Task: inverse folding
């Protein structure tokens, strides 16, 4: 293996080869996305002016991200004034340690979790389980993935790649339930299993979709009601949130919530959009006694330091760019090997986990621009893929590539030599079939999936000269 | 790293360092000139609603249909009580969770005595509430543009009553239907000033999931049914 590749890249190549030839899986994913696409088109069409709304959403996030320090401090001030606790974590280790120590100090035994990609990002479940805590994912898709022992396939639709019969088999095996072919019955099985966990858990853990600076709140968007229960019932609550999630004003959500819903799932508004400003307040009848917000940096400030790609932090994780991406549809979510899949994952992962190890994701794009087109906050996604490619090459040029270009330039500057070289092309064509597809084939990367066009028997230049000669000969 | 706030200074320091170079605004909002907040113009871009209460009601009821919320227009409190009694009889309810309020109390006094009431106002037993057949609440307001019911702690019996029992009943007045989220947030701001409830939730239809093959199933964790009893 040359140093040009990385373990992540090799894994990617291997998984992509396997998943692209898994036709039934690709059909399942396509069918799921078709339902999404028609719902999204229907709802998007009801907007008076989607484009103007998008510019406004982009402006709001730009304002927030470019004054991140001020808005985070404002949030912290307001939130702690109401009895909430804020913990700043530079990295995943600090975030995990804080949550584990808190759970130990409070004698927590059972933890119920609602969906949090930040939790996936810092491998929180594994750490909690290793410390002896019981952790149950309550979002249906996450619950299924947890049972399956698999990472989410898509950061909004965690188990979209599974067919109902596979889920039924999984439930049968893990929960001992009768097999069924009905999504409704499968959902009710999960409902029955999970309902008790809300009442029995001592601690709830969630993510958040937005941090609201001016009122000191976090906002959680969900469809199932599991986050409402996770934040409402247990005595202690911890929300693990990326620092970039800020919006300046509560009123900004009046635009962002409908846009998140429309782009994410094709709904006018997601089932439950809930804003929480601290623990149970005096005079209130329920809610947690303690409410902690863990603000997670974990390399987000690296992305922030790149003004060219800073707008990637505007992302509201709607998942729309995955849903329209031809690469995602073909290679599937797990192939990325990242917490955040799809186009936006390909943009941000190199910043989070190293450019040289993860640059291949930026190469795995047709640059069709469907992601940029669909993004509700107007992130220049596909241009950022190009920026990553450029930065990676500048930092570490591909071996032999500069030599190749030098040779090419040398040739192009010398017409006589170039003409001589073109004479050899037909010879190459003639010899190529002898090695095609073998390890000796210099074009193996191309010919393993495509035909290599045969060189024309004579060059354009010589054909043109012959043609001109004939013409002048005929007119005489 | 101090134990209470963690790596606060380091994170803030990195943010400030990173922000020393400004980033271009690539998609400037079309209407935020003259110092006006962008917020003021949301209505021009979002799905249209219409200015009158009748139009708001029409859109709200249309969306309820799509969302599979049950909107029941009631002539008066007696009619609302009659409908609720029918639901209780049909569903074989034993216990109704509820909170005290001008509308809920008036409604409750008209319900059959055989139905056990579980008031949550002074705290409640989680298991008992989990086992109850329905939860009856008031709401802060309703949102025409999205078909949503806005509940908060003070308006709706706390954080859990509106989401734990399998059937959520909302009693509201027609005049509570506002235009959109912008108006909803403005109304909440005017009412609570700087003393917001610790939870505000916009409920849009019964609990739902599409996690299995993107096929809609109602009642994933929260209520399987959402009934809105609308008084004049
Ligand atoms: S980059 Fe844009 S489209 Fe993709 S998840 Fe983020 S907000 Fe949605």
Result:
């Amino acid at each position: 293996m040359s140093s040009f590749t990385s373990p992540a890249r090799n894994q990617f190549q291997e998984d992509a080869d396997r998943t692209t030839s898994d036709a039934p899986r690709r059909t399942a994913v396509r069918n799921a996305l078709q339902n999404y696409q028609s719902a999204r088109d229907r709802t998007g069409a009801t907007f008076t002016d989607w484009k103007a709304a998008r510019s406004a959403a982009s402006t709001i996030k730009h304002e927030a991200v470019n004054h991140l320090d001020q808005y985070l401090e404002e949030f912290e001030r307001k939130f702690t004034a109401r009895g909430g606790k804020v913990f700043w974590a530079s990295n995943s280790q600090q975030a995990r340690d804080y949550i584990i120590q808190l759970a130990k100090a409070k004698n927590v035994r059972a933890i119920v979790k609602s969906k949090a990609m930040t939790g996936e990002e810092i491998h929180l479940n594994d750490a909690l389980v290793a410390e002896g805590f019981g952790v149950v994912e309550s979002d249906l898709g996450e619950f299924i993935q947890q049972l399956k022992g698999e990472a989410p396939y898509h950061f909004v639709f965690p188990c979209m790649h599974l067919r109902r019969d596979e889920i039924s088999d999984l439930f049968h095996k893990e929960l001992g339930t009768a097999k069924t072919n009905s999504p409704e019955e499968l959902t009710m099985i999960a409902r029955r299993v999970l309902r008790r966990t809300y009442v029995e858990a001592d601690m709830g853990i969630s993510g958040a979709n937005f941090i609201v600076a001016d009122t000191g709140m976090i906002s959680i968007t969900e469809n199932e009601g599991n986050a409402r229960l996770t934040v409402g019932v247990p005595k202690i609550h911890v929300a693990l949130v990326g620092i970039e999630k800020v919006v300046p004003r509560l009123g900004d959500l009046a635009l962002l919530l409908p846009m998140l819903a429309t782009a994410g799932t094709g709904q006018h508004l997601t089932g439950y959009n809930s804003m929480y400003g601290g623990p149970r307040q005096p005079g209130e009848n329920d809610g947690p006694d303690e409410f902690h917000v863990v603000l997670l940096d974990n390399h987000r400030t690296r992305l922030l330091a790149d003004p060219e790609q800073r707008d990637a932090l505007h992302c509201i994780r709607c998942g729309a760019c995955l849903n329209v991406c031809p690469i995602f549809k073909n290679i599937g979510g797990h192939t990325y090997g990242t917490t955040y899949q799809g186009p936006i994952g390909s943009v941000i992962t190199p910043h989070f986990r190293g450019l040289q190890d993860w640059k291949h994701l930026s190469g795995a794009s047709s640059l069709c621009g469907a992601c940029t087109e669909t993004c509700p906050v107007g992130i220049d996604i596909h241009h950022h893929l190009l920026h990553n490619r450029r930065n990676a090459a500048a930092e570490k040029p591909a071996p032999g590539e500069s030599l190749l270009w030098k040779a090419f330039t040398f040739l192009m500057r010398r017409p006589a030599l170039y003409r001589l070289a073109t004479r050899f092309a037909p010879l190459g064509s003639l010899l190529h079939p002898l090695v095609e597809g073998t390890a000796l084939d210099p074009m193996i990367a191309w010919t393993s999936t495509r035909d290599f066009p045969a060189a024309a028997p004579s060059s354009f230049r010589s054909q043109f000269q012959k043609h001109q000669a004939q013409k002048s000969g005929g007119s005489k | 790293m101090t134990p209470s706030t963690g790596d606060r200074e380091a994170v803030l320091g990195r943010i400030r360092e990173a922000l020393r170079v400004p980033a271009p605004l690539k998609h400037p909002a079309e209407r935020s000139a003259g110092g006006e907040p962008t917020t003021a113009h949301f209505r021009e871009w979002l799905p249209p609603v219409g200015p009158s209460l009748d139009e708001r009601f029409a859109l709200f009821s249309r969306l309820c249909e799509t969302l599979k919320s049950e909107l029941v227009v009631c002539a008066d409190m007696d009619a609302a009580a009659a409908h609720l009694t029918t639901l209780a009889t049909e569903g074989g309810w034993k216990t109704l969770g509820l909170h005290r309020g001008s509308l809920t109390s008036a409604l409750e006094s008209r319900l059959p005595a055989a139905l056990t009431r579980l008031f949550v106002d002074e705290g409640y037993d989680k298991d008992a509430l989990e086992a109850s057949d329905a939860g009856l609440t008031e709401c802060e307001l309703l949102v025409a543009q999205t078909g949503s019911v806005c509940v908060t702690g003070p308006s709706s019996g706390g954080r859990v009553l509106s989401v734990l029992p399998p059937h959520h009943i909302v009693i509201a007045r027609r005049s509570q239907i506002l235009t959109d989220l912008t108006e909803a947030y403005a109304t909440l701001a005017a009412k609570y000033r700087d003393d917001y409830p610790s939870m505000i939730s916009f409920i849009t239809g019964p609990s739902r999931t599409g996690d299995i093959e993107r096929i809609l199933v109602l009642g994933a964790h929260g209520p399987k049914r959402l009934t809105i009893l609308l008084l004049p």
